[in-house]
Amino acid sequence: MAVHHAGIFSSGAIRDRRVDKSAHAVGIPGWQDLAAILLVLGVVILVGVGAREMVAPFVVGRQTEISLSPLALPLYTLSTIMRMLAALVASLFFTFTYATAAARSRRAEVVLIPILDVLQSVPILGYLSFTVLFFVSLFPGNVLGPELAAIFAIFTSQAWNMAFSFYESLRTIPTDLDEASRSFRSSAWQRFWRLEVPFAMPGLVWNMMMSMSGGWFFVVASEAISVGDLQIALPGVGSYVARAIQERDLVAVGWAILGMTIAILLYDQLLFRPMVAWAEKFRFEQTAAQIAPRSWVLDLFRRSLLLRRIGEPIREGLQEVARARFALPGKALTKSWSLPAGVVDFVWHGLLIAGIGYIAWEVVRLAGSKLSWSDFWTAVSNGGLTLLRVMILVLLASLVWVPIGVAVGLRPKLTEWVQPIAQFLAAFPANLLFPVTVFLIVRFSLSPGICLTPLMILGTQWYILFNVIAGASVFPNVKERITNTGIIPSTASADDGYSTQQGRDEVLGLGLKVVSISGAKGKKIIEPQQWKSEPYRQARADRSAMESLVFTLKEGFEFGQMLRRTHNNVLAEMLEKVLAYNISQIIRVRNKLSEREETQRAAA
Question: Which pLDDT score, from 0 to 100, does residue 4 have?
Answer without folding.
Answer: 36
